Amino acid sequence: MANGLALRKAAREGQLSGTTTGQAPGHIQANLIVLPAVVARDFELLAARNPVPCPVLAKTKIPGDPHSFAPANLFLHSKDLSTVIDIRTDHPAYNVYENGKLLATKSDIKDEWTDSSVAFLIGCSFSFESALCKAGLTPRNIDLGRNPPMFTTSSRLNPAGIFTGATMVVSMRPYRPEDIERVREITRPYVKTHGEPVAWGWNALDELGIRDVNKPDFGPVTEFRDGEVPVFWGCGVTPQVAVMAAAEKIPGKVMSHKPGSMLVLDITEDQLFAAENTSIQPLGLVINGH
Amino acid sequence: MANGLALRKAAREGQLSGTTTGQAPGHIQANLIVLPAVVARDFELLAARNPVPCPVLAKTKIPGDPHSFAPANLFLHSKDLSTVIDIRTDHPAYNVYENGKLLATKSDIKDEWTDSSVAFLIGCSFSFESALCKAGLTPRNIDLGRNPPMFTTSSRLNPAGIFTGATMVVSMRPYRPEDIERVREITRPYVKTHGEPVAWGWNALDELGIRDVNKPDFGPVTEFRDGEVPVFWGCGVTPQVAVMAAAEKIPGKVMSHKPGSMLVLDITEDQLFAAENTSIQPLGLVINGH
C-alpha cells in the first residue's frame, strides 16, 4: 500500500494488524504514547528538555479528543482531520499498560481511551536509515533485516516533573571511522527523528557507560566488520523507559503502539526534511496575544 | 531606568557601560553570542539539541543584519524594529575573541561585525531567581549579592556539527531538602531560562561528576546553612564554553556580551512566562509551503 491514508484505513478496519516496516516507503512513521492529562504536561516538558532521544512530532490538542493534533501540518491529506485520523484505531496494534505492567495487546484502544487521554506521536529512526541507504551507507541492521541493538546508558535525561532519574537509550550501528563524518552529515538534518549521532568510536562505550557492545538491553546483537566502530544515536525507546520508570506516579492506563505497528503519516520524508526548506525553531513558547 | 528601550538607548549612546543586574526589574535580559554564518547553523543545532543549558531566545534573521530577529515577538516595543535594536551597540559592553582568546572589551562591536555575522540571544537565570525571591525562597547568591557558583560537569552535550565533546555547565544554589519540590515547581515554567533543576541532593555531585562543591569552576563559593543540599540548574555559560572549545574550527572573530552587561528586552517576565498563556512547542521545523 502506497500511502498513509490507505494504511491507517486498513488498520482502522482490522485489515492490517502487523508491522508497518517497509510499508508506504518515503512516508513518515510515528511511535505513540498515550497518557492521562494530569501527567501529560510533565511528559511534554520531558520531551522538550530532551529532544534528541524524545522528538515529539505532534500531540493531541484537547484531552479526550483522538482526532485533532498540533501541529496540524503533519497531516496533509485532508482538510477535515476528523474524518482521517483516529488515534484509537489507526495504529495496526497497541500495547496497554498499568503500573508499568503490560495488560494487553489490542487492535484498538477505544475501550481504554478516556476523557483525559492525551496522545503523543514520536519520531522514529526509519527516516534517517533510508537516507543512509540512499547514500550507500546502509545500516548493518537493515542489511541483516533486524532491529538495531539498543543500550541503556548512564547519560542522564534532564528531569521534568514526575519524570526524574531516567537515562538515555541509544541505538547502535557500526561504521568505518573514515565514514563517520559523512554519516553525521547525512543524519544531521533529521532533527525530528534523532538527528546526528550522540557518540561514536570505542571510547563512546565509556562515555555512555555501556559495558559490553555485544550485550544490548533491547534488540539483537549486530555484526562488526573489518575496522568498524560503534556509532550511537538517541533512541525512541527512551521516552517509553522514562514513562515506565514513573509508572507508580501515573494514575490509570498508559497506551503505546505495539513495537513495529506504527502510525503512517501522510507527510513524506522529503517534505519533512528537505534541508533547504527547514529552519530550526528554538524550544518555543507561544505568547498569548502576540 | 524602567524599561528595555531606555536601557538599550543608554547603552547605544555610551551612557551605560556597566552591569544591567537589577535594572528594569521584571524585564527579560539576554546573553549574546555572535558567530560567523559558516558555523551558525551548527550552533543553532547545538542549542536545539541541548535546550536546557542553551536556551536560544532569538537569533538574527539574515547574516550581517544587526536589526531583525526571529521570533520578532520578543521585541514588543516598536513596530519598526530597525529603529529599536542594533545588536552591535545595545549591550553596555562586549567581549571580542579570536581563536578562543580574549582580544578586547569594547562598548560596541561595529568594527568587528561583518557581512557574515549572526547573533544569538540566550536566556539567563535572572528570571527564575526573581520568581524564587517572590516565593520566599531567595537564592543564597542573591542574599549574598554574588553570582552563584558554577561547575563544569561530566554530563555530555548532544554534539552538533563542529561542536563535539562539550559538557554541561551548571549553576548551584543551596536549599533545604523539604523545599526542593517547591523550588522545582516554581522554576519549571521558565523553560526559556533553564527551567527546573537538572539535579539535586548530595548524590548529584557524583551524578554530575563534580568533585568538590566548594571549588566552583566559575563564580564564587557559596554558603550552606543547616541541612541544606546543593540544587543544580543548567547554566548559560555552557554555550560559551562549547564555542571556546571549538575555537580552532571557527574562522574569524567571536563576540559576546561582557558578563553582566546584558541586552535588556522589552518583553517582561510575566509576558514571557505567564504559565496559563504558554504552550510548549516541540523542537520544530517550518515546513515550506505549509
TrEMBL record, chains A, B:
One Pfam family hit: D-Glu_cyclase
GO molecular function: D-glutamate cyclase activity
Transmembrane regions listed in the UniProt entry: none
Gene Ontology BP term (one): glutamate metabolic process
Keywords from the named record: Lyase
SUPFAM superfamilies named among the record's database cross-references: PSTPO5379-like (SSF160920)
Organism superkingdom: Eukaryota
UniProt name for this protein: DUF1445 domain-containing protein
